[in-house]
Amino acid sequence: MVLWLLACGRPGLAPGGAARMPLPGFATGLGAYGDTRPRTLLLYDTTGPWGFLGELYAQQTANLVSHFGAWQAGPVAAYTAGQMEGYQAVVYLGSTYDEPLPGAFLADLKARTRPVIWCGANLWQLEGGPSGLAASHGWAIKGYDRTPLTGVTYKGTRFERNVPVSDGLLGTVVTDPRRAQVLAMAFGPGGAAVPWAVRSGQFTFVSEIPLSYVGPDDRYLVFTDLLFDALAPSTRPRHRALVRLEDVGPDSDPAQLRALADILAARKIPFAVAVYPAYRDPLGAYHQGRSTAQDLAGAAELGRALGYLRARGGTLVMHGYTHQFGETANPYSGASADDFEFYRAHRTAGGGAVMDGPVPGDSQAWAGARLRDGLAAFAAAGLPPPAIFEFPHYAGSAEDYRAVQAEFGIRYDRGLYFPGFLAGKPPGQPVDQYFPYLVRDVYGSLVVPENLGNVAMPGYNNMVARHPADILRTAARNLVIRDGFASFFYHPPLGTALLTELVDGLRAQGWTFVSVQAALR
User: Fold this and answer.
1) How many CA atoms lie within 13 A of 492 on its CB side?
2) What is the DSSP letter of 67?
């Protein structure tokens, strides 16, 4: 079990082991590899009608910087003189236009001796305006650019930028190429080009908040790599791959699983198997209206197949308990693998799913009991209880995430993050986040990355088609990340041909497949 502390106004550990007392409203988190000494100070905006977004962006950034070490995060308004001393790097998230920045923060930045990453607005408050920036940094502000910039180029690779035109970039122009360097350019139709990230010395400016409107091929990936320059500049390139067989349960076809295991074992590729240990179809969606239930212990042939998979490099992951909720459609059929388990959802007129909130009776105690029932179901089937958890449909409440942290400490999924969590406020509408490398997120859990998605065919749960070629294009973009992963999941009913195309294609790009255990190192 992994121990972790989220502190709001509680002491963390500063570099050198000295106690560092966060100001009220500041939170701390451990690093992915157990580092307790905060290396990154995260500061965010809080004013205005959209002030809550600053704290949400801070959560997402905290998740990313945890890859490099422990962190502290709090409102920039609470900053006091000298507070950034002792940290390796400072990240400021300017999400509110004209957020009043403390004079002490601006003064300390002028005298900085460590890397600083400034994202988004309010740069005009630093160094006395554009003319001061030009004199001190070799680049100046041009004002907001509302051109429909749809892509960002970085290290010779183009990334998507699906952002509304109203959310423009804070444009810059390099005035002295000897002192300033453009790291990434944003592009649009008609040859439009605007610097997206600029660096002068140890100061890096990213011209927007790169955490909104994020997709699998997004400029968000550029930001995840820029963090290495500030926090781990000597990192050696390493490109690892992961594959997970998805939605395996007592109703699965053992022959399909054995065939996929043979494909992977023949290539010496370790893999994970996401298993829900109890199958439920209370509404009889797949059994002519008859309520049907089966646990792993009653599916002897599947149990033998899972043993076969384990012998060929498979690691079991607990994928919920029943992968559905109660005796209701949530939101599709009520059956295992179709529905959400830890979060309520409803269907739209077009057939899609909209997440509504925690399930009735949700609490950390309820979720913990459900997790223990699932582990007991593995034991009853003579299988070792998994040490890693994956949320069904990647969705749970903050209380559910706390329960998973207490029972497992390791997840293999994408997370939901709720506005107000760092500040101890009631949770708002969540956003999801994927990671290209190992992190310890704000819930305290190690999160094994899954960043490529899955092969998806239209017609199932209103999925948008995603073919192996799409996944391979995303993987190629992730090669710019100097120590990143290409991680995907795969549904066994799709057969062996598409899986073969994917794993062979990833190897041809230069990815090396590793086990889940190796991904934690």
Assistant:
1) 28
2) T
CATH 3.20.20 fits 243-413, yes or no: yes
- Helix, strand, coil content of the chain in percent (nearest 5): 25, 25, 45
Report the pLDDT value the prediction gives residue 459, as an integer from 0 to 100. 57
Structure-token pair, residue 222: 């550029």
**CA-CA distance, 153 to 184, in Å (whole number)?**
6
Distance of CA 363 to the CA centre of its chain: 23
Q: Mind listing the pLDDT tens digit for each residue in 112-151? A: 788 999 999 999 998 766 567 788 889 999 889 988 999 9
CB atoms within 10 A of CB 120: 25
Tokens of 364: 């950390």
Angle, helix 497-509 to helix 468-478, in steps of 10 degrees: 20
Q: Is 46 left (phi over 0), alpha (psi -120 to 50) or beta?
A: alpha
Distance, CA of 195 to CA of 42 (rounded, Å): 24
CATH code for the part of the protein at 7-231: 3.40.50.880
Element (H or E) spanning 398, and its range? helix 398-407
Q: What distance in Å separates the CA atoms of residue 470 and residue 7, rounded to the nearest whole number?
A: 41
How many angstroms separate the CA atoms of 339 and 359, rounded?
12
What are phi and psi for residue 412, nearest 5 degrees? -135, 85
- Residues 19, 11: contact at Cβ < 8 Å? yes
Torsions phi, psi of 72, nearest 5?
Answer: -130, 145
pTM of the model: 0.94
As annotated, the residues of the chain forming the CATH 3.20.20 domain(s) are: 243-413
Angle at 118 between CA 112 and CA 121, to 5 degrees: 130
Three-state DSSP at 469 gives: helix
Angle at 11 between CA 9 and CA 12, to 5 degrees: 115
Q: Find how far residue 76's CA is from the centre of its chain.
A: 24
